[in-house]
Amino acid sequence: MSRHEQVSVLLIEIRNEMQAQNLWQSQPPEPAALASREPFCVDTLDFTEWVQWLLLPRLQELIERQLPLPQNSEIQPMAEEVFKPMPEDTDRLLALISQLDQALRVHH
Hints:
mainly alpha, de novo design (two linked rop proteins), globular
């Protein structure tokens, strides 16, 4: 399986898991919120909103256009922090995000 295929499958699984845990939003945030310069848009978006509205679509576009994927990904540590206090069962989602990090990491 190619890296693009691997990441594509993970994007679908992350989306499905977020929907299963009611962490998926039907309304997009304000465009200004998406334009934040902060890592993960921490000043304007919840982490799960950042995943839904920025991370997944951006990676999906790279896959569709067969463009190079990011060479490095460190999403899991942030996800762990954010998910700790949440009432939802985020174990599977965290595992999927960890797999996404690994899939995006390039081993030289």
